[in-house]
Amino acid sequence: MTASRNLDFGILLLLADQEFVRGLRAATAEQGFTDQGKSDGFVLRTLGDGPATISAMAERLEITKQGASQLADDMERRGYVERRPDPSDARVRLLYLTGRGEAALKTARKYHQAYERKLRTRFGDQAIDSMRDVLTAMAGEAEVITPHFKSLMF
Description:
This protein is mainly alpha-helical. The chain has seven helices and two strands, in the order H-H-H-H-E-E-H-H-H. The protein has helices at residues 9-30, 40-48, 54-61, 65-77, 99-123, 125-139, 141-144; strands at residues 81-86, 89-97. Strands 1-2 form a two-stranded antiparallel sheet. The model has no long low-confidence stretch (mean pLDDT 90).
């Protein structure tokens, strides 16, 4: 562990993130979700709170409407989301998670929780709580509690 103290902190954060994502991809692939894209998890969590318009999804993900529409088209093609008319206004189309999308989200959430439990077992609650405090401070407390991140919480 002491060798890592000589490694650039930013690089260490990047390597930790890459390892986490590698494990997440393996866990979701093991459950049959072999076609996950890089942004799928954010879309799944955004729609996990309920249906949304393309505009609302774009705003939550801080991307353009065109980018959100392209993501939705791709995920719809792969069976994770579907578009349906808004029950209160048939002119508006809402994005919903399909059964496949809900299952993929559930699988990802299980992995996230299991990963943290594994860290807590190895390093203890105090160390992981401290790590959460550090990461929150790095991200910015105000940023972490914004409505933008509401859908990313458990």
